[in-house]
Amino acid sequence: MASNTATMGNLPRGIGICTTIPDILYLPELIFGGLVWILVACTLVVPANPQGWVMFVSVFCFIMTFIWMVVFACGGHHNKGSWAAADFAYHGIAAFFYLSASVALARVTLEMKDGTNFRNYQLDISAVVFSYVATLLYFIHTILSAIRWKSF
After folding, report:
1. Taking all residues of the chain, what is their mean pLDDT, rounded to a whole number?
2. pTM score > 0.90 for this model?
3. Cβ–Cβ < 8 Å for 23, 91
4. Which comes out higher in pLDDT, residue 2 or 112?
5. Rounded to 5 degrees, what are φ and ψ at 20?
6. Residue by residue, what is the 3-state secondary structure of the chain?
7. To 5 degrees, how large is the angle CA 44–CA 36–CA 76?
């Protein structure tokens, strides 16, 4: 079971990011964000603009979450109050970005419903589901990061 000791004024270091709340959410965020990235990249990009936004958000959040996780794992955060605030801000922005990308992807997928390529439609449905799961994970991480930030 995950420990919540990091939520009471401590930021995790090393392997602690895999055992503390909200930092245990880094890995699922990476997994579901990567799945969105892969599934959208596999489909035919019919309306390029919304799909381009979805790709930008999924790649950007994947890379930034990985970097953020490495910084926490290596113990690169010295001013704990500032890092807790930055963690809250990053995950809030990521949740907002993913929500906007999820809505755009869902709209594009609904418009593809009457199309002839059923495989792309199935891939887009999967991408929409994983995108909303990633949005939920980032939102939960935002809430838990805000609680941790307020405890400083």
Report:
1. 83
2. no
3. no
4. 112
5. -115, 155
6. CCECHHHCCCCCCHHHHHCECCHHHHHHHHHHHHHHHHHHHHCCCCCHHHHHHHHHHHHHHHHHHHHHHHHHHHCCCCCHHHHHHHHHHHHHHHHHHHHHHHHHHHHHHHHHCCCCCHHHHHHHHHHHHHHHHHHHHHHHHHHHHHHHHHCC
7. 140
